[in-house]
Structures are given as structure tokens and as C-alpha cells.
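pls read this stuff:
=====
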Amino acid sequence: MSNENKFEHITIEKEEKGNFAVISINRPEKLNALHIQTLKEITEALETVEVDQSVRCVVLRGIREYTKKPAFSAGADLSDRRSADLDPTSLRHQSHAMYRRHKYYNLIEEFPKPIIAAIDGYALGGGFELVLVCDISIASKRSIFGFPEIQRGIFPANGGTQRLVRNVGKMRAKRMLFFGEHYSAEQMFEWGVISYVVDDDEFENFVHKKASWLGNAATNSLFLIKKSIDYGTQTPLNIGLQFEQMGYAINTRSEDVAEGVSAFLEKRTPKFQGK
């Protein structure tokens, strides 16, 4: 998959053997700060791979070739705070401005295939909120997390007050949002925000290993697991269990189930085709 000319803020590449795509935020001079165009391009890139059966997992990351410091994303681009068509004095217009950003975060979160956030460096503010809409997060030990918005008098509204508390609990979320402090990858792992923390020199290989594993796993099962967790947990337990029952019934029709069971009985490694 070659980078398409329409993308100015990101790059997209395809790892053929691993069956995954890599979307890289490509704004190194701004520590990969998130302009609304950046978010739009991420969702457009995801749309291009959603129906591509050869892409079964996506890695979302900051560009490897950084110019200042390594960064997943240092947060929202503060030069992008006003839209020409919106009145900055209108509460309704400013609420709509945030709706536009929420729309893109929601589309990323709702993407049906697994998304790995590969975090090397800063993940602050809107960048941290981008991590929270991914399924798996892998961070290098040098990575730094936090919500510095309060230091600039800004409200952290890209889902920060809502998704963060659902990950770390109310008291920890208030601590992070009230004081704007920085946190290590190890601390975020202890609080359950990060899936893996790895040594800096092992980071790239580890991300590739996990993305390849998901890219060669049973795609339909992953799809149903993701849907059941993301939506079933928003309902009472008895309804969530109905998600599981229906998910199980749907998954039994998958070719990968037959392959997985056969491989187990034959004591060999399964070769899932994502069907």
C-alpha cells in the first residue's frame, strides 16, 4: 500500500506478511500535534483498510523519523482552535467545534478491526485521548503521558473527562486532569491504561510481533470479541451475556473455527484465513 497523495498529515503503509497496516502521524516538527485535518485523515485511512481483507489489524503511531523529540502525539494543535465558519463567542458554535473532533475519535474507536497504539515518546492531551480509543497500547519506557490542558486553562474535551475515568477510576482521573502532571509508562501500566511496556530498544520488534499475531489470528472472532466488550459492557450483565451468546453462535459459522479446532486436534499451528 503506497501513501496516497491526499494525505498530508499521515502516512500509511501495509505489512504484507503480518497482514496489518501502519498509520503514522507525520507532523514531527509539531511533535505530531493533532490538527482536525490529522484526525480526519486517520479516519479516512482507516476507511480504506476496513474492507481490505488482507489488512486484519492496524498500528497507529507517530512517525519514526522524529526531528525534535520522539512523540506519539503531544496533543491538540493549539493553532487549530478556531474554525472560519464558527463564531468563537457562541457557546453553541463552540460545542459544535468539539462535536467535530468527537466524531473522528468515535470513528476510530468504532473501527471493527483491532487497533494497536504504538507509543514512543509523548502521549499528552489529545494524543493520550487517541490512545484511549485504541484496543491495545504498547509503550516504550521513555514514553510520557498526561493531560497538561489545565496548565493552559483549557478543558480536556476530546473524551478525556469521559474515557479516562472509565479506564483509571474517578479519583485518579481527577488527579491527572486537575494537576496536569506527567506520568511514566510504568505508572500507566500499573493503572491499567497501557497493555505493554517494553524497553526502548525492543519497542519496534515488539510492536511488529503483536501486530503480526493479530494480523494472522482469527479475524471474525476478534471482531466479535471487540464488539462484545465495547458494547456489551455498556449494558446490564444479562444483556451483555446475550451479546456473548449471539457472538458465539455467529462465530461458529466461521471457517477459522474449523481450522482452529482441526489444528488443535492435529497438534499443529493453525493457519487462519480471516474468514
Residues 86 and 95 are 10 Å apart (CA to CA). DSSP finds ten helices and ten strands in the chain.
